[in-house]
Amino acid sequence: MAVVPSGEASHSFEFVAAPPDLAPYLNSLYIWRTSDGQLDDVLPAYSGQMVVFGRGVGRMQFDDVVSDTSDAFFVAPLCQARNFSVSGPGVVFGVSLNFRGWAALSGLSVHDYHDAFLQPETVLQDPLAERHTTLAPRWRAGEIDDGELLDAMCDIVRQGLSSLPDQHLTVIDRTLEWLSSSFKPELDVLYDQLPYSKRQAQRLVAQFFGQSPVRLVRRYRAVRAATLLSMPQLPDEIEAEIREAFYDQAHLIKEIRFFTGRTPKRLQPNSGSTINDMLGPDGYSSVSLFGAGEAEQLGREPLDEL
């Protein structure tokens, strides 16, 4: 378990490694604690989340709709950063699903289900959805502790997973590898790697990731840049590579703000932010942030997922 203190911010994250059998489907588990009062922040374009609100209440802004939290719900994958608030003290338990996990657990197209709170029964079969909704009351009653609640969430995921067709797994995995290969990967490289026509490939990428390949590049370039810029002691060469991936400083700021809710200045390691924790290595692992050049300078294996 990695505890991420948040400086002057009134919250903390505990990241918990996924069980080995669920590792292909999850980024991580986490417990997020907030103190009294209201915390206002922005959630980046993040993958799907299974959530239990043990204590506190929250809300998130989705365009013209404001959605309130409940004891148990899912956050569908986000295609852009979203404003949220939590009235504390809060204790939130989460299972961060990667794109394989979202597809295998929910069976829902991200093109149709994104940027929204979803009730458990929308994602899970009835018996599992009912179990999901009982976890917060049981935790508040002292029937289960933090670890047992996370274990129960994992068991629900484990029982709810369905097998994905090999060709669909190929689309997900090769798209992730393609996104990881460069700040500006070539579209034709992706289409050449997928066992479908260009039109079919575009449709399936939208199904599993919520956006066309062109827009997906923008999204992950911004998230990848933000994650790297949030690291302490980033080598000058990598920072230069990041800046070269955008037209100019204004473009970099605009894209990072749209997809992460941050500006480069607010990504500094000591800024004490909910979002900096989630953009950090434990929080965001769907796409490898390190190509070969970055890996060598940061002491990591090429394309080694965070």
UniProtKB/TrEMBL annotation:
Coiled coil: none
SMART domains referenced in this protein's UniProt entry, alphabetically: HTH_ARAC (SM00342)
Gene3D superfamilies noted in UniProt: Homeodomain-like
Domain HTH araC/xylS-type: 166-270
Ranges that cross the membrane: none
InterPro entries, per the entry: HTH_AraC (IPR018060)
GO molecular-function terms, A-Z: DNA-binding transcription factor activity; sequence-specific DNA binding
Record PROSITE patterns: HTH_ARAC_FAMILY_2
Protein name: AraC-like DNA-binding protein
Organism: Qipengyuania citrea
